[in-house]
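input
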Amino acid sequence: MNNSAALSQFAVNLKYEDIPAEVIEMAKKMAIQTIGAALASKEMDFTQSVLDFSKKYSSGPADATLMLDGRKTSLLGAVFANSIISDNIDWEDCSWTGHPSAGLVPAALALAEARGKSGKDFLTAIIAGFEVYQRIAMVIQPPRGFKANIGWGLTSWQIFASCAPAAKMMDLTAEQYEQALGIAAVLMAVPNSLVHFTMSNIYHYQHGFCAQDGVLSAMLAEHGVDGMTGAFDGENGFGQHHLVSAQEIEWYQKDLGTRYLIMDTLLKHWPTNMWVQASLDIMDAFMKEDGITADDIDEIIVDPPTQMRMTLRPEGYEKIIEAQYSIPYCIAALLLDPTPGAQWYTAERMHDPELLALASKVRPGPSNEQDLQVSFNTFQDGDFVDKTITVKCKDGRVLTRSCNYPKGHPKNQMTMDEVCERFRVQTRNALTPERAEEILDTLRNIENMDDMSHIGEILH
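output
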């Protein structure tokens, strides 16, 4: 069977009853984590800006709910805003190819609400969508050894992370589903790396653009747009005409239907970039198990340092992404405020003299920098880069701890109870404790919902 048809038939034919229990559980964790990450961004000025923009420019039937705001807007408007909000605080997932849950979950939620789908439909769509997305992304992402400065399209192939679950939720036929994927291949943005150098918040908007266009692709296929079957096959297939492709065509159908790649996803333990996670796990252990506080610190040595993640700005951080991607900044933020959240990234906090002075004590160790591309390859191979931190204290103590698999890694995955506890932390400034438990109960038992048309009530 050709690649396009195989992916489409897998998604269309996938039934809730045929999915292993641990995979269903992972889809629930992903939904809880993503919704929690969105709600965690409540106090960020940028989140309010996103909501204001969406309400100003969205039009059409009030089909789906804006997270945090609670108002209903158009289906595409809700997917656009909710996908951005899900990525704002950088606290969702990290797969081998990006942050698919920022598109998967908002798209599936909006369609479930707009069309009154069941909880089982919702979970099945997330799983089918992830499996289709990940395999396409693995084919079209750059090959190993590629220099990311000329176009790494993490948010480009994100379009399939919303198209794939949306097409499933719409009950498209296999041919229509194939059309939807082909349309998404046409609408996919040209990969570029400009935003990774500017650290602009447009990076988060990219998630919204891609999510919106992915759902639009499914809507166009449902509407009857055709001629886009076979988009991943033959001499004109996506791997041939795409500007940058690894050409690893076997990924389209690799273990399709027998191996669920969603199980290899990392759910972030901290609201920071993926490559900062291990450092914060280590520092958290120093604080909880060794009693280390900010006042004890003379020097913190991170070894090996990670490429582009040891940035120190003594004058302060102007952009949230700069802070989220900085190991020195995030370590200092944790030491001064052990409960993670949006308060780590306020303008005042990012210019706090005390935090910046503490961050300046975080220095790179003697090993060579960890190359980010190599690090991603290591993650794809089922492993992770080792990290060691040595803390030199003012009283002369020298303490060392290491971490290979940060909490949330597939080999150190959070349990459902740990995901729920993280949700409580994420939403503590957005929800009352009683409301958080009500929402958790709904999400943990979402397969029992026959009609999700009122799901928007839990999103704010």
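quick obs: The first strand starts at residue 64 and ends at 65.
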